[in-house]
Amino acid sequence: MQQPPLNSRSKVTNILLVDDHPAVREGLAESISRESDLTVCGQAEDHRGALKEIESEKPDLVVIDLMLKNSSGLELIKDIHARWPQILILVVSMHDEMLYAERVLRAGAHGYITKQEATRNVLLAIRRLLNGGIYLSEKTSSTILARLAAKPKVVSDSITDLLAEREMQVFELTGQGLSTREIAEQLRIDIKTVDTYRKRIKEKLNLESSSALLKLAIRWNQDH
Q1: CA dist., res. 22 & res. 138, Å (int)
Q2: Which of 20, 68, 109, 168 fits as disulfide partner to 163, beta carbons 3.0 to 4.6 Å?
């Protein structure tokens, strides 16, 4: 009887799931496990756990949520890209793709899919990345291409360059109309911490009042 090729096992793609909601990880794992050439090699709920799993399991692709337990998914993306640039990264998030897709791509990710869309298209997104492509919705792809074609802005004037990651999250959520308490709950931080971030944002952007911060945040969200 003819023996299978010795390298047949190498065709299986190892995937690590990073999300602080067990139900989300289980749903993704169930979809992925139906594919004979894909396997979930590990799961993690935060930054530290993800790095530990990567070191031990050597995944080919990591699926990451932007909001993790006690950490930022964007910082994890940057860390993975710096240490293991060969690993493919797909972001699966509840947040608006138009607000975050370009930033995660700059950080080192290769695709962005919302959790609402993931139930239908996560396998399509994974295979797009494995084939050397980038996965984004058609609308977001068009928007990013339009920005690249437009006259570039001065980098030093970019809000995203002036604000740290957590400050940027607070700034965007402020522009979406969320209250201090709602921002604290969504980011899983104290209300006083939100106030501290807002104070830093006003200082960095030379804003004199909370009203000025709100107006700028709303306008920035509308433009992005």
Answers
A1: 30
A2: 168
